[in-house]
Every structure is written in C-alpha cells, then in structure tokens.
Amino acid sequence: xxxxxxxxxxxxxxxxxxxxxxxxxxxxxxxxxxxxxxxxxxxxxxxxxxxxxxxxxxxxxxxxxxxxxxxxxxxxxxxxxxxxxxxxxxxxxxxxxxxxxxxxxxxxxxxxxxxxxxxxxxxxxxxxxxxxxxxxxxxxxxxxxxxxxxxxxxxxxxxxxxxxxxxxxxxxxxxxxxxxxxxxxxxxxxxxxxxxxxxxxxxxxxxxxxxxxxxxxxxxxxxxxxxxxxxxxxxxxxxxxxxxxxxxxxxxxxxxxxxxxxxxxxxxx
Length: 269
Prior knowledge:
Blueprint: E1 8-15, H1 41-45, E2 48-54, E3 59-63, H2 141-148, H3 151-168, H4 178-190, H5 212-217, H6 220-229, H7 248-261
Antiparallel strand pairs: 1-2, 2-3
C-alpha cells in the first residue's frame, strides 16, 4: 500500500460524501464515531483521494473524487486549465496533471528564481561607497561608546546630579565627577548580562555573586549614593507638557550624536 512506503511522512485522505445523506447502514456501526475502523457502507463505497507527502518534498495524488459532474476534456492547445469544481473539494498538486479527461484540474504555474530589484530608477544609482570620517581610524568598543557618552554628556549628568543632591535633597557633602559617572554607567551595563537579585550583591563576599572588577572600581556606598541622586535635568525647569522632561536633555544630546555618527547612507567597501 502506498501509505506504507518508507519515504511517506504524512498523507491526507479525502472521502466524497454519500449520494444520499439520509441513508445509513446500521450494521456498519455508528456513523458519528468518526474512526477509521468503523466507517459506514456508504463511506466505504464512496470515491476517495489520497495525497501523500514524501520526505524529498514531493507530493503525490492517488485516486479521485467523483461528484457526479460531467467530465471535461482538456484542450491540447492550452497548457492552463481552470478547475471546474470548488477548490475546497480537492487539494492542489505540485505537478501538472496529464492531458486527458479529468473531472478537475489545477493551473500549472511556472516559478522562476530571480533577485528582487532595488526599486530605484537606473538614472539615480546609490551614492558612492565611502567611509564616514570617524571610521577612518580604528575604533574600539569603548571609544565607540565614548562618541555618544562623551564629556559633554557626562558633565551634564554630574551637574544635574549635584544640583539635585545639594539643593533638592539637602546633602551638601555630595560630590562626584565624570570618571565616577562613567564607572556607574559601566556597572549598570554589566548588570544587564551578569544579573543578580540585587546590584549590591556584587560587593558581597560570596563567590557566586561577588564581582571583583565592580568591587575594585567603586565602593558599594558610592554606588548607592550615585544611584540615589542620579539626574539629567533640573527639577525647577521642567516642561509640564513634556512627559519625558526628566530625561529630555539626555535624549537631545544622544540624538545629536546619532545624527553625527550614523549618517543615513553608510556602506563599506
């Protein structure tokens, strides 16, 4: 049997409905069971079609459904023949059927492989390939990061954090600088992939959470203090209509650098 072939991975079986749906055969069992072992006589005598799917990707159709419609002879001069039956009745085959009398047949479509066009008119080609100025010299990950979080950005964070700590929170002993803010950002970046339940656990002595690089770069108390007072805008000069007013200055500075270091057309030779 075709279904027992080793290369058949799955199959669909289509059985035509009985000509008289009101007739049932009691000795064939309950027709509502829906099992393959207990089909009615009408179902056993009905036309059937089997579509097998093989391991090599091929699809084969065996048999055919008979819906008592007149056969249509295909035109030998026409390669494409439309189906004369409801397309939901039978599956679509991947191989063009032979030229003979058929009760149904699908169109044979020829597929070709080709590159998708750019959509650009030929008279307006792409701009010439060239490296932006900032890539004329070798850049490390840290120097690339420094292009965006440069001294101007970090100075703004230092200034606003100091104002918030001293003026708004009354901690007149608070002091920080660009190096400390840069280290704070580095710790936050590390915490993104080396995660612990609480960031303060990086300074614990337990070997499963202690991070030697973080503990050596900054004390836990200094980290907590910077996190408590970290600010990028002045609370007394916030735009009430801007829901991002608290971080708008940082947004503005980073957007300026994105436009500067990420030109719209960037292609490499």
